[in-house]
Amino acid sequence: MSTLRFEALKETFNRVPVKVEELERRSAIFGRNVFNEAAMRQYLTKDSFESVMDAVENGSKIARGMADHISTGMKEWAISKGATHYTHWFQPLTGATAEKHDAFFETVGNGQTIEKFGGGQLVQQEPDASSFPNGGIRNTFEARGYTAWDPTSPAFIYGTTLCIPTVFVAYTGEALDYKTPLLRALQTIDTAATAVAKYFDKNVTKVYATLGWEQEYFLIDKALVAARPDLALAGRTLLGHSSAKGQQLDDHYFGSIPTRVLNYMRDLETECMYLGIPVKTRHNEVAPNQFELAPIFEETNLAVDHNSLLMDVMDKVADRHNFKVLFHEKPFKGVNGSGKHNNWSLATNTGVNLLGPGSTPMKNLQFLTFFINTLKAVNDYEELIRASIASASNDHRLGANEAPPAIISAFIGSQLTEVLDELEKVTNGKLSPQEKTDLKLNVVGKIPEILLDNTDRNRTSPFAFTGNKFELRAVGSKANCANPMTVLNAIVAKQLIDFKVKVDALIKSKKMKKDDAIFNVLREYIKDSKRIRFEGDGYGEAWEKEAKKRGLSNYKTTPEALKAKVSKKAIDLFIELGIMSKVEMEARYEIEVEEYALRIQIEGRILGDIARNHVIPTAIRYQNLLIENVQGLKAIYGAGFKKLASEQMALIEQISEHIAKINKGITDMINERKKANGIVDAEKRAIAYCDKVKPYFDEIRYHCDKLELLVDDEIWPLPKYRELLFTK
Ligand code: ADP
Ligand code: MG
Questions:
Q1: Mind listing the pLDDT tens digit for each residue in 178-187?
Q2: How far is the CA of 224 from the centre of ligand 1 (A)?
Q3: Total Cβ atoms within 10 A of residue 422
């Protein structure tokens, strides 16, 4: 084994698990570092407390004078917890979270100092944000963006820093982050869903979109990652032959969690408790060294913040435990990838889950209304959903025979399919009393009992109804959930708005009763959205053909998929709902296509480096050994050496062939990169990277992996798959 690999493995094996202290009960520490309702009651005046709560619940503005009171209370609370700094915490379009720390501490002359944090500092800050991606909205050298407090997500303390969740906006008003459009979409669905929910219950005054994400990840020893430039820099292996044993035996899934990992998880969960992230479940995933963590669902804005925060915390805690977390969707070829299922539903202020079937026919009509409208929205905007989950890394997963396919479809189960089939038959116009009774007794009334035994869960569906929520499974493990959640909530909001207009029109012009009108509109929606429903195997080739017939999109690469983001349909939608302007949408599109090209470019460079600096030199060293051996045999045996050295000579030739192919692949790839870099248009550049540069990766990798199998294990410098995946 090479010294590099040996040292990395030795370090790994010598690790003593980091001890995790036994703490107080989880429930006792939950939210201790969050400026939550309890903390606010203690540290804020009655007026300022009420103004924050009013902002949270009703979206009202907080008066500037009030902000001074709030900041004082917040500061006192933070200092009592040992905080020395504060930061506006935000989610720029890089996908990571950003923060710039300022101390509370200020000098006031005469060598005197005080702890200061005014309303102005709470409400608005101007980070030096010139190098965050902005898609050309903001002139980069101007750096005129500001962060503004989002009171709907509570401030928290991480380490010794008070973190204030904020939006990040250009001075010209355009959103520069993920949170701003999400908040606008959530506002829109609140209004639209509340109006529809009022058909069924006048007491509903607010609807919250809920989100429960499930975070998958790999946990790999830090020393092994450090010895793999591809994992360290790109988060995935760009080469590496598969291990003799992989996941075929399924012996990792839900198996017992290794001690070192368990210690990490416990430490992580404790941190999450302090931060008010309600993590609940943890288990092994399908692949070796792959795990999952899921919280109790929350209101979507908070859930999105918590997921972003969690990913940061995971990185930091992993470092303490000498692990590296891999969030990449496909770190290992031929091994299960990672996703982030987004469980989504709508809940009313009266405590009703609008996607949960109820106990009476009327409640079930409400359920069906939201259920069918969601299907219709997904049917109409499937391309936009596909675009919202597109990334260079998720491309490895979608449609790769393990994750949902690149085709968006919805699974609802056989019982609900039957219900929709029945509803499709309802009379056009007013329903007879007999028909209504039948519907109530035999169709709508039956829903609760049937859903209970609806355990059939189609794992191949990208958007599945799972009893009382929809589960968007196509989201990548690395992604910020805000992107798909903005789209999903926006399209359902739009759908509900249209639905209400139609129902109201029928009530008014046709003098229909409310439920007759609702049945009539739902019937049409069921018909119109049939093509999105698919109950079969999403991995099969047959589905690809069928989906094509149905006119569903099947974009396998990010550059193709992203285009829907700037289609007329998408722009019209977001403008109509006031979620994003054309400029904002085009800017985002530009950022994403640029990011795509950059990611492929970086991977191409890393692969070129590893192949030329690690693989080829190692292969040559081994080849030299073989040559020496052959020469030695010749010296001893003379002409008879050929028989004795035939295997060695064949290897020498094979090695030369692989080296030649690798070299040619890299040279050709670099030429294509050069050409791509010369393309000014970002979209065309992304397409060139996708179609012209990326294809060389497989070719180069193939020959590197062959060499890995041929070359003496003792000199191979890179940790191998079996070491990365089976070292615990
Ligand atoms: P499973 O059997 O697939 O684990 P669970 O019901 O335990 O299903 O839920 C899985 C995820 O769904 C969890 O993260 C949970 O928080 C989330 N979830 C459950 N109900 C809702 C809901 N109404 N809205 C959003 N997410 C939900
Ligand atoms: Mg799930």
A1: 999 999 999 9
A2: 35
A3: 16
